Amino acid sequence: MSKSIHLLAMLGFVATLSACGGQQEEEYVVVDQEPVTTEPVYTGKYK
Predict the structure, then answer these.
(1) Diameter of the chain by CA atoms?
(2) CB atoms within 10 A of CB 47
(3) DSSP 3-state assignment of 21?
(4) How far apart are CA 22 and CA 14, in angstroms?
(5) I need a labelling partner for 11 at 20 to 30 A (CA). Which of 18, 24, 29, 39 fits?
(6) What is the pLDDT of residues 10-45, one digit of tens each?
(7) Dihedral sign, CA of 27, 28, 29, 30?
(8) How far apart are CA 38 and CA 16, in angstroms?
(9) Per-residue confidence at 8, pLDDT binned at 50, 70, 90?
């Protein structure tokens, strides 16, 4: 193979690695929302 084909193949390989290798998975946090009102709690018959 000629040197130009080797050069193009190497540049394509480096471009592929740089495009795919630099991505990092984003971290995300899930927060449970608090209820707007609280439910009544049974405290007994005469309280």
Answers:
(1) 96
(2) 5
(3) helix
(4) 12
(5) 24
(6) 999 888 888 777 667 788 888 888 777 877 788 777
(7) negative
(8) 55
(9) very high
